[in-house]
Amino acid sequence: MSEKKVRVRIAPSPTGDPHVGTAYIGLFNYAFAKHNSGDFILRIEDTDRTRFSGDSEQQIFDAMKWLGLNYDEGPDVGGEAGPYRQSERFSIYKDYAEQLVEKGEAYYCFCTAERLQKLRERQAAMKQAPGYDGHCRNLSKEEVEAKLAAGEPYVIRLKMPYEGETVVNDGLRGEIRFENSKIDDQVLLKSDGFPTYHLANIVDDHLMGITHVIRAEEWISSTPKHIQLYKAFGWDEPKWYHMPLLRNADKTKISKRKNPVSLNYYKEEGYLKEGLLNFLALMGWSFGENKEIFTIDEMIQNFSFDKISLGGPVFDLVKLGWVNNHHMRLKDLDELTKLAIPYFVQAGYYENENLSDEEFAKLKRIVEITREGSQTLKELPVNAAIYFEDKFELPVIEEGMNKKERKSIERLTSSLETETGKKSIQMFIEKINKLNEEISEDEAKQILHELQDEIGEGPAAVLMPLRAVITGKARGADLYTVIAVIGKERTLARINNILNK
């Protein structure tokens, strides 16, 4: 008999910004599905209507598509196993809960909120683990029917075995054993008729044909209840894989108090989808061969659960920046430049995103240079300020500067006072005035070489004063590149701006 087609899912709740943890778990589901020519499904778990947000749901769709984690079935793309919103499947859950009651695998519980509160208080006072005490578990059929006829509110609870163990066969962790006596009778259907996560999750996974459940390790403690539900229904359980949680530097579960967790943040900050996915893959998986920079296609091709590490992966923004920088340098330059344009507009360097061919060509060269030292698209205009800001002040030594910074500023400003410095600037003005407005990098480079030959001094003596009046910085991009990018008129304007001061 041939194996079932692999079908996996993620099931986020639309209650806020799309979470980076959703992308992390989504990535591993997606990679596993595609490695096995299977299906990747997005299901929206929106039974908590008090926290539901339609905007949040749309943001989940948008974030997944931005990352390229394209699901085969979902609320907005359809599929044969739909609907894919739990709120649209509401009518089926009560039927399944009542089926379990009829089979003797679940029962009606009529305990009031007041009784349950007193039970919790008593258990706390006796230093017992909190949990339901089975008060309604053995009500007679007549007692149940009388209470139902009287309209008493109820929930439906799963009958957990009192004895023995439930064994979770985890594909990453091996056998995990739980004593049944320590697991209380989980609520399946709430008094308002809504299913709990546990019931809806198992019913939906079964009806959607989910073969492998790949989710965060925080769900391990719930898995015995899920396994018992599969047994109660008489269904085959899926294969379980519980991924290590993303963690803060102090090893606590990743939280917005210590790390940005919204996928919107990473998109707005200008991280590339390739960089973020590569980083998230490294959080739980090793490519092997000491290879840390790879594409999603390479991950899919080489995917194996054997390569997953169970150590708590630290969500390190420094490492993310390093990974993203590599992908910025690998990305097609035209594409990277197009992605960068909104950030240059935001910085005030362009009025809108409709650049002329000439403007695009110059920006493309600027991006090519500045991407080497930039970790995000948002950093590009910051690091490219030298090409846009014509009016600047020479740096001054300030209190608190280290010795290296002081020395750099002294070298820059003092170069303007030397005879060589003054001569270099004057001769440069004469030479550049003979050129057209558009100056190539080769032409600019030739002028700078000629100056050194004619003055008879090395690069430091000749070029430092020119750096001072053209860029205001002792270090940075090659001077001939700056001159070629900004052109003759702006170069002369910069020089006059400093000399006039």
Q: Can you give the helix content as a percent range?
A: 40-55%
**What is the approximate shape?**
elongated
The structure class reads mainly alpha
Tally of domains: 3
How many strands appear in the DSSP assignment? 9
Work out the strand percent.
5-15%
Low-confidence stretches: none
What attributes characterize this protein structure?
mainly alpha; single chain; 501 residues; two-stranded parallel ribbon; Arc Repressor Mutant, subunit A; Rossmann fold; 47% helix; 19 helices; elongated; Glutamyl-tRNA Synthetase, domain 2; three-stranded antiparallel sheet
Compact description:
The chain has 501 residues and is mainly alpha-helical.
Descriptive notes:
With 501 residues, the protein is mainly α. The protein is elongated. The protein has 19 helices and nine strands. A three-stranded antiparallel sheet has the order 3-4-7. A two-stranded parallel sheet has the order 1-2. It has three domains: 156 residues, 3-Layer(aba) Sandwich (Rossmann fold); 121 residues, Glutamyl-tRNA Synthetase, domain 2 (Orthogonal Bundle); 98 residues, Arc Repressor Mutant, subunit A (Orthogonal Bundle), CATH 1.10.10.350. Strand 5 and strand 6 form a beta hairpin.
Task: Write the topology of this structure.
Layout (H helix, E strand, L loop, with lengths): L6 E4 L9 H16 L3 E4 L11 H14 L22 H13 L3 E4 L3 H13 L15 H9 L5 E4 L6 E6 L3 E6 L7 E3 L7 H11 L4 E5 L6 H11 L5 E5 L19 H6 L4 H12 L11 H6 L15 H14 L2 H14 L10 H14 L8 H5 L19 H12 L4 H15 L7 H15 L3 H12 L8 H22 L1
Parallel strand pairs: 1-2, 8-9
Antiparallel strand pairs: 3-4, 4-7, 5-6
Helix pairs in contact: 1-9, 9-11, 12-13, 15-18, 16-17, 16-18, 17-19, 18-19
